[in-house]
Amino acid sequence: VRLVESGGGLVQSGGSLRLSCTASGFAFSSSTIKWFRQAPGKEREWVASAIGSSNITYYTDSVEGRFTLSRDNAKRLVYLQMNSLKPEDSGVYYCRRDQGDIWGQGTQVTVSS
After folding, report:
1. In terms of Cα–Cα distance, which of 97, 85, 109, 94 is closest to 5?
2. Alpha-carbon span 7 to 19, nearest angstrom
3. Is 65 left (phi over 0), alpha (psi -120 to 50) or beta?
4. Which residues contact 74 (CB under 8 A, 6 or more apart)?
5. Side-chain half-sphere of 65: how many Cα atoms within 13 Å?
6. 3-state secondary structure of 24
7. Alpha-carbon distances of 99 from 48, 55, 62, 77, rounded to whole Å
8. For residues 16 and 56, what is the distance between their CA atoms, to the nearest angstrom?
9. For 29-85, how does the pLDDT look when each residue is reduced to its tens digit (9 = 90+)?
10. pLDDT class for 13, splitting at 50, 70, 90?
11. Which residues lie below 8 Å from residue 63, measured CB to CB, with a gap of 6+?
12. Cα 49 to Cα 59: distance, rounded to the nearest angstrom
């Protein structure tokens, strides 16, 4: 059972990045996958959820309208498209499978002002 994030990097304020979360070892399409982020010195916070067996997504208020989740069940991928990035979006982004509390290793996102 494994989750691997990718797609992080350094981008200027107002720019975009697309993060990917690749899953293996479990029933993907029925799994709820969530994204979290953690900035230095701050607690890890929930960012967005892709609900299993549905196209339902939820977002924290600070990213609503700027971030978009999508999933490709055939490829076992969840994408987090991040637009209009702000410096406060910087941090390590993690994906997590609700069932079993499985976490990836994280990918760093840095937004410069």
Report:
1. 94
2. 4
3. left
4. none
5. 2
6. strand
7. 16, 18, 26, 16
8. 23
9. 999 999 999 999 999 999 999 999 999 999 999 999 999 999 999 999 999 999 999
10. very high
11. 47, 48, 82, 89
12. 7
Which among 110, 78, 109, 63 has a CA at the least distance from the CA of 3? 78
Confidence of residue 12 (pLDDT cuts 50, 70, 90): very high
Tokens linked to 98: 């609700």
Could you give the CA distance from residue 67 to residue 46 in angstroms, rounded to a whole number? Answer: 13
How far is Cα 38 from Cα 64, in angstroms, rounded to an integer?
Answer: 18
CA-CA distance, 28 to 49, in Å (whole number)? Answer: 14
Contacts of range 108-111, beta carbons closer than 8 Å, 24 or more positions apart:
108/8, 108/9, 109/8, 109/9, 109/11, 109/17, 109/19, 109/37, 109/82, 109/85, 110/8, 110/9, 110/10, 110/11, 111/11, 111/12, 111/13, 111/15, 111/85, 111/86, 111/87
